[in-house]
Amino acid sequence: MKRLESNDYYKAIEPLGKVKINTMFAESVVKQVIPGSVYVDDIVNPRAFYIAHPCGMSLLIGESDNEEFKRDLFDYITNKNMIRHHQELLQADPAGGWTEVIAHWSEQEMLHRNTRVNFSFNREKYLKQKASYLNQDLEVVRINKERFLAATGGVNPKAFWRNEEQFLAEGLGFNILDAGEIASTAFSGFVNEHQLEIGIETSEAHRGKGYAYAVCSALIEYCLEHQLEPVWACRLDNEGSFNLAHRLGFETTYMIPYYRLVESVIRKG
Fold first, then answer.
1. Which residues are CB-contacts of 147 (< 8 A; sequence separation ≥ 6)?
2. What is the structure's pLDDT at 268?
């Protein structure tokens, strides 16, 4: 695997555009919205790409027939040389042959296989269901600098944007406040000219009150007003996010294997 210089990231734009699954996190790296890493099989004429976002997500696309790249990738995935110091959640384009390659590796190594769900948004379904779920008596406010900096939890905008200035200029989100405290947050994890991917976090003390639905609905309403398609993806085992997506009008489109790459792998045998 060879690391591309950032001024060559454009070489991944066209191949990335051909991938059918959700690739917005990888797009944000390739278009340099946020710093990340792009590895390829060949610097001059790349045909395979490994795109890593700093939030810990990575995407593998392109041709799977370069043996040297596959050997290097195997060493990276299993952290043979201990160059990766944090876990990554690896997805692969199902059309590129990589799913079969990694599935074979997972039989030999202690790779943690899971399933990630991609959804599509059904506007009519959302509008029809909204009245049944939406609690209007809530304090919904736009995320400002102070609330951006105060965000906590496993999913928050600080992990997806360089800083508060970039988020306020290029992204957006909403908070629900309960007695002045941030109870739930929905924000744009990634956004482009046509789509906005939703990130959601509700503090443990405020779960089960309908806050997540209400704050996500505020962001969806913004999308509808600004001709943006809302985008949702989550782990299959995240039942809260999966069920919330369906209540918000999203419908399952793809179920994709993904692998949790830990700092070190215990080899079998």
1. 141, 175, 182, 185
2. 53
CA 170 and chain centroid, separation: 17
What's the one-letter identity of residue 144?
N
Pairing mode of beta strands 195-202, 229-231: parallel
Alpha carbons 213 and 245: distance in angstroms, whole number: 9
SS3 category, 126: helix
Residue 25 burial (CB count, 10 A): 26
Q: What's the pLDDT score for residue 134?
A: 80
Residues 184/212, Cβ–Cβ less than 8 Å = yes
pLDDT number for residue 256:
94
> Phi-psi category of 79—alpha, beta or left, where left has phi over 0 and alpha has psi -120 to 50?
left
What pLDDT sits at residue 85?
81
Token readout for 81 is 């040389």
248 and 213 Cβ atoms separated by less than 8 Å: yes
Instruction: Give residue 135's pLDDT.
Output: 76
Q: Concatenate the DSSP letters of all residues of 170-192 into one string.
A: H--EEEEEETTEEEEEEEEEEE-
pLDDT at residue 265 in the model? 57
Among the residues of 22-175, which ranges form H helices? 24-30, 67-77, 98-108, 123-133, 145-150, 164-170
Residue showing tokens 């384009």: 93
Enumerate the β-bridge partners of residue 230.
196
Compute φ and ψ for 116, nearest 5 degrees: -110, 140
Q: State the Cα angle at 132 between 131 and 137, rounded to 5°.
A: 65
- Cβ atoms of 185 and 23 within 8 Å: the answer is no
Which residue positions in the chain have pLDDT lower than 70? 110, 264-269
Quick one: tokens of 79? Answer: 């952290």
CB 191 within 8 A of CB 197: yes
- What is the C-alpha separation between 14 and 12, in angstroms, rounded? 6
